[in-house]
Design brief:
The structure is a single chain. With 221 residues, this protein is an alpha/beta fold. It has one domain: Vaccinia Virus protein VP39 (Rossmann fold, 3-Layer(aba) Sandwich). 33% of the residues lie in helices and 26% in strands. The chain is built from six helices and ten strands, in the order H-E-H-E-H-E-E-H-E-E-H-E-H-E-E-E. The strands form two sheets. An eight-stranded mixed β-sheet has the order 3-2-1-4-5-9-8-10, with helices on both faces. The protein has a two-stranded parallel sheet with strand order 6-7. Strand 2 (54-60), helix 3 and strand 3 (85-86) form a beta-alpha-beta unit. Helix 1 (10-26) runs parallel beside helix 2 and helix 4 (121-133) packs across helix 6 (176-186). The chain starts with 9 loop residues before the first helix and ends with a strand. Mean pLDDT is 93; it is low at 211-215.
Length: 221
């Protein structure tokens, strides 16, 4: 696919290396991944190329991203990236068009930088959908900025939050405690918190069933 079809996110280019480092430590050599809100497709291509034993299913609410997703995968030589599908987390079943995913279908569900540029209801949609479609032992990984009780918010994140809310009153950086409450209601629990560059967090969520529950681990670069 020609380069003009490729959409480019400078943020995705900057953060893909530190995110990949965490995924390499977290994931097994083989598995099936579902990406929510794939956007430009840069992450799908970069991560799938690094995990040749995985299948990577990109999705996005907007089909206008599909050509870029396909193009980045082709440029990376990531033949394990499947054709993108339209998926709105507020709709059920997933995806929004075509055959529904089976329950317990994915070892990883990955979602970066969606919660703060979507209505709050999308958090519950994401958590409930992940609980339906994660395979036993699988995990949901979310990445982005969060507000945390008792943790000073970086000035850059405060300014970013204000700019988001000025664009759309339904947007804004989410409180981690609120996200955790919604995850718990869906049957998921937070098992790892990794502080990444530029005041972002990579969070790992797993089934809250006692057989798979693990204590929260925390790491910094």
């Amino acid at each position: 696919m020609s380069l003009p079809a490729l959409q480019h996110s400078p943020a995705a280019e900057r953060n893909q290396a530190p995110i990949l480092a965490q995924l390499l430590a977290l994931l097994t050599p083989t598995g099936a991944a579902l990406e929510i809100a794939s956007g430009t497709g840069q992450h799908a291509a970069h991560f799938a190329a690094a995990f040749p034993g995985w299948t990577w299913q990109p999705t996005d609410q907007q089909a206008t991203h599909f050509a870029s997703i396909t193009g980045w995968a082709a440029q990376a030589g990531a033949a394990n990236v499947r054709a993108p599908l339209r998926l709105d987390v507020l709709q059920s079943p997933w995806p929004s068009e075509g055959p529904a995913f089976g329950e317990s279908s994915f070892d990883l569900i990955y979602c970066a930088n969606m919660l703060h540029i979507a209505p709050w209801a999308c958090c519950a949609g994401l958590m409930q959908g992940a609980a339906r479609h994660l395979a036993p032992g699988g995990c949901l990984v979310t990445y982005g900025p969060y507000l945390e009780d008792g943790v000073p918010t970086a000035p850059g994140n405060l300014a970013f939050d204000a700019s988001l809310r000025a664009q759309d009153a339904a947007w804004g950086i989410r409180r981690l405690e609120d996200v955790t409450t919604v995850a718990t209601q869906a049957g998921l629990r937070l098992t790892a918190r990794h502080a990444l560059p530029a005041n972002n967090l990579l969070l790992v969520w797993t089934s809250a069933q006692p057989a798979t529950a693990q204590p929260l681990t925390e790491a910094t670069p």
